[in-house]
Specification:
Length: 363
């Protein structure tokens, strides 16, 4: 019997509501005829931890994560703590500390979801966005001097390295190659940003030579927003810098129906360190504590975690349960125009997982 060691980090806000839902789905899955088990360890890091200890996570926190097979993460962000402290103190600390350089974000219109793009069918929006996750605009380089004086100066320096650029583009080309359409769009802004983004374009051209079967094109990030709305079917796999992909993937999730649905994997492809899986949404201060957060993003996140653990059958089983739930409007939460609660959706998804024929029973 295989055992996977999973760290759960609910974090803040609705992270504390959706991560337990995701864990419940994994527990039901393991209990029902699967050939694996999970050993969970929960970490109470986040805003409450900060109020007690003055930091979002302990100094040796990364060491505790290194022995895990995967991490299920909720959200970092507390209404009473500045956002740059919560984000850098927890999520970015883990992503950068465990070198999770490929942030992978699929988007598609699930059954039963009323998506805002009325001119396209569900099959026309089936994307996966690859986000550079360790450098670029979020490298953390920069500073502030003369704070509060009229001569104050503040800089956020975007740092892009050849190694960092090449590895993320290679990852994106490989992912595009593994998908049926073998189609990659490289997002850039090399007209205005004339140093790093020009290098980004040049490296894409070089890496493309190793993937002759992948059709690829280049799009400016501003034009890309319009193309996502007007010609969604012209896109499949997309690679972009840390900031560009951050923005484009929220747009992708909204176009597919809701921010509450989208999943993310922060992947360390070489598998020296564990990868981290999270819904794309944040703490959602406006609905936290009400029990109405959409857990679908977290369930889809769980699917990505299972795929990463090479449990393809189990991943398909959870995805089928998700699609069964979204197809039923009575199981739509408020963000989808319904009135279902987190618990309603979780119960339905878990029941479907439990009822599905296990691979063992089928054999
Ligand atoms: P958000 O994703 O928290 O919320 C944006 C809007 O979407 C809100 O109206 C919210 O109610 C809605 N929404 C999001 N997820 C939902 C769900 N599962 N079900 C139903 N509705 C949902 O983004 P924000 O308001 O920009 O940020 C709030 C806090 O979260 C900030 O502190 C921010 O820094 C943090 N944040 C953290 C992460 C992360 O840890 N990965 C990501 C984004 C934002
Ligand atoms: Mn974001």
């Amino acid at each position: 019997m295989k055992r996977y060691r999973i760290a759960t980090i609910p974090g803040d806000g609705i992270g504390k509501e959706v991560v337990p839902a995701g864990r419940q789905a994994l527990e039901v899955l393991a209990a029902r005829g699967s050939e694996f088990r999970f050993e969970f360890e929960d970490f109470d890091w986040g805003g409450d931890y900060y109020r007690r200890h003055g930091s979002m996570m302990p100094a040796d926190g990364l060491e505790a994560l290194k022995g895990k097979d995967a991490i299920l993460f909720g959200s970092a962000g507390d209404p009473h703590i500045p956002d740059h402290i919560t984000l850098w103190g927890l999520r970015l600390k883990i992503c950068q500390g465990l070198d999770q350089y490929a942030n992978v974000r699929p988007a598609r219109i699930l059954p039963g979801i009323d998506a805002p793009l009325k001119r396209c069918g569900p099959a026309d929006l089936n994307w996966v966005i690859v986000r550079e996750n360790t450098e670029g605009e979020y490298s953390g380089a920069g500073g502030r001097v003369h704070q509060g004086f009229p001569i104050e100066v503040a800089t956020d320096l975007s740092v892009m390295t050849r190694a960092g650029t090449e590895r993320i583009q290679r990852y994106a080309f490989r992912l595009a190659q593994s998908r049926p359409r073998k189609l990659l769009t490289v997002v850039t802004k090399s007209n205005a940003q004339r140093h790093a983004m020009v290098m980004w374009d040049e490296i894409a051209q070089e890496v493309a030579k190793d993937f002759p079967d992948v059709a690829w094109d280049k799009e400016m990030v501003d034009a890309m927003t319009a193309r996502m709305v007007n010609r969604p079917a012209s896109l499949d796999t997309i690679v972009a810098t840390n900031l560009h992909a951050d923005i484009l993937s929220d747009l992708a999730a909204a176009l597919a129906g809701s921010l509450g649905i989208g999943p993310t994997a922060n992947i360390h492809p070489e598998r020296v360190y564990p990868s981290m899986f999270e819904p794309i949404h944040g703490s959602a201060f406006d609905i936290m504590g009400k029990g109405i957060a959409n857990p679908v993003g977290t369930f889809w996140t769980v699917v990505m975690m299972l795929e990463h653990l090479d449990e393809a059958d189990a991943a398909r089983r959870v995805m089928a349960a998700i699609e069964h739930a979204t197809a039923n409007p009575k199981l739509h939460t408020r963000d989808l125009g319904g009135s279902a609660t987190t618990a309603d959706v979780t119960e339905a998804v878990c029941a479907h997982i439990a009822a599905a024929k296990s691979p063992l029973a089928a054999a």
